[in-house]
Fold each of these.
Amino acid sequence: MTSVNVIQTQPIDGQKPGTSGLRKKTRTFMEPHFLENYVQSIFDGIGGVAGKVLVVGGDGRYFNDRAIQVILRMAAANGAARCIVGQGGILSTPAASNLIRKRGTDGGLILSASHNPGGIDADFGLKYNGPNGGPASEGVTDKIFARTKEITEYRMLEAHDADLSALGEQTLGAMAVEIVDPVSDYAELMESLFDFPAIKALFAGGFTMRFDAMHAVTGPYATEIFERRLGAPAGTVLNGVPSPDFGQGHPDPNPIWAKPLVDMMMAKDGPDFGAASDGDGDRNMIVGKGIYVTPSDSLALLCAQATHAPAYAGGLAGVARSMPTSGAADRVAEKLGIACYETPTGWKFFGNLLDAGRVTLCGEESAGTGSDHVREKDGVWAVLLWLNILAATGKSVAALMDDHWQTYGRNYYSRHDYEDVEAEKANALVDALRGKLGELPGQSFGPLTVATADEFAYDDPVDGSHSAGQGIRIGFTDGGRVVFRLSGTGTVGATIRVYLEALETDPAQMHRDPQEALSPIIAAADAIAGITSHTGRTAPDVIT
Ligand code: G1P
Ligand code: ZN
């Protein structure tokens, strides 16, 4: 017999979900009632789950399995009809988005703190995605947040754990729990988008690749798709077995955290192609033999060459990039004569444009690229689109990028992060900047003169919503730009992100060191924002 307990609780004030749901220290999520309060707030915020069908899965980090048991018992206690759960509690974020869409569900709960480390002393996260498969809209997020502040009770079924390892159907109270293979539906979707025979022929011809799954969720997806379906030799996928603490690593696919892969790619006899993905499988890093491709450049290249893939052979409806992402994609869109949208940071802003059919591809400077096939960014998808283009053109990554820069110019780009800054100091820096935006145009900083200075706000062209305070952008007369923004995903202190960009159109200047090419912008950024005087920091903690 199972029974529903109604448990009295206190509001959990201040738990505002960020761009990717709620992220906290794992121990915070493990505190008595914390997870339960947040799950009940989600259920209440979306208008209850009675009779609804939800997808549930996560990136396998520490506490993933326990949290799923709690979510299932609460979903059952709140009257949900069915939960579709990835076997072992595993679902990559894009695979969850696909399942939500494919099965026509009422949304899903994804357990992940993305690229943040996992473990009892690291990070955990939970987010709700809507029926379109994408992150909750601003309106829904606000409702969930409002519930966290007024919640007084939650509902919990008294029951045994569900068996997450057994494929097929079981029941929890009156709710069906359906355990599905986390990989097969996703792999099938990929096979429908790309020219698998051409990619298979590429590998059969001796093309070499290394995909670093970083001990995170993409291991099983990459092994099935690259090694089994596309015939890449065993050993192509590195660190392919997911572990709760990601092998004690930091599953963020960038040149810092995926350095071993980048080093391998820079070696003389390195593989032809390298790629990596993050904790929950939505980010990607692309590296060619001897060349690192910035996410902004990758988005631009994919836009320019997408028609090589069957799914995009008819051309792109448009492209969208987050505001801090470089303007490289804009230059491609202009040439293709398609629309280009600039949105606030966070994938949810792309969802409306994708749903409305206004854009086909979208991307962020933070290693996120995706298309209208799901409503999340998608790491393995990006790698497959690159492979499809490499197979179709027969060119190397370096040759493709070189041709691209010669055609469109090169947007040198880098992001400097100042981490764990005291919140007051970070806010003071932004307030001071905001206060002097009006006087910046016309001022010179070394060789650079400010052309425009504003704080980015976005009016969603689809639902009409307005998002203010989305970052401060300063444009220079030569096409360069610096953007200042505070991170919305950190779990301690504040992170100041400084996004730097310089446009180069001289064909002879396409192979400079990016930090050197950006040095005038870097100097101007500090002069304008007073980073050192406000924070005491003399150098960024992370440069990507
Ligand atoms: C970061 C990235 C942003 C991305 C988000 C979720 O957010 O900058 O592009 O959408 O993670 O993966 P931030 O910490 O900058 O708010
Ligand atoms: Zn992620």
Amino acid sequence: MARIFCVANQKGGVGKTTTTVNLAAGLAKVGQRVLMVDLDPQGNATMGSGVDKRQLQLTVYDVLLESATVAEARVRSPRLVEAGCGYDVLGANRELAGAEVELVDQERREKRLREALATVAGEYDFILVDCPPALSLLTLNGLCAAHGVIVPMQCEYFALEGLTDLVNTIKQVHANLNKDLQIIGLLRVMFDPRITLQQQVSDQLKAHFAEKVFDTVIPRNVRLAEAPSYGLPGVVFDASARGSLAFVEFAREMVARVQKMPG
Ligand code: ADP
Ligand code: MG
């Protein structure tokens, strides 16, 4: 059965989408069966996985509104398959922005994704959900569906402060909606060890969160930033780039962590 992880942080531009697509590609590369769910109406994770969001017949929007199943809506980019990093994509585009409003007076509105993913969980080892930069109903659907949350963060001065809201939301979801939910880990991304402040914040993170901080550190690496404009994860675009190697290493760390998780 698939382990389901949300990549969440209510801040924009912290590396959620980069983490989701590169972890998906990295996991596929080490032999895991992966479904990537794009929960952000910007559709960056969809495009970054080699899938044109404008061409999609069915998206996660249709799944949330229960007019399509995951099996009907998922797609897979042949370019990623050719590269040996193929994974399924439940894509998103602008239409998803309307879901928030359309779901608001519907029943089980925060459990739609959870129920939909349960129908395909047996077909995957990992399901990764890229969340939008807000603690919205869409993110709530992701948190309700997940076993764990991966929190990418830059080691900046305000990094710890920004975590409080997310940690509180996760606690509430854990208490009221999804008792399986836990923060699986904090991932240091866009890291530059030459910057003393980043090193200090990294040390603080480890002091506060101990083993919740992943061992793998994702460096700042321009190849990871260039890859989306080619419609590819960095791991596929330039497999030997430092950032790509780090994400494959992170995929291995995730596989090892999952083996240690209960159930
Ligand atoms: P989010 O999904 O949280 O908004 P993104 O993953 O889109 O964040 O990243 C924000 C920007 O930072 C993007 O332009 C992305 O290419 C760039 N970026 C992300 N991770 C790295 C990295 N490790 N090195 C260099 N650039 C990165
Ligand atoms: Mg994003």
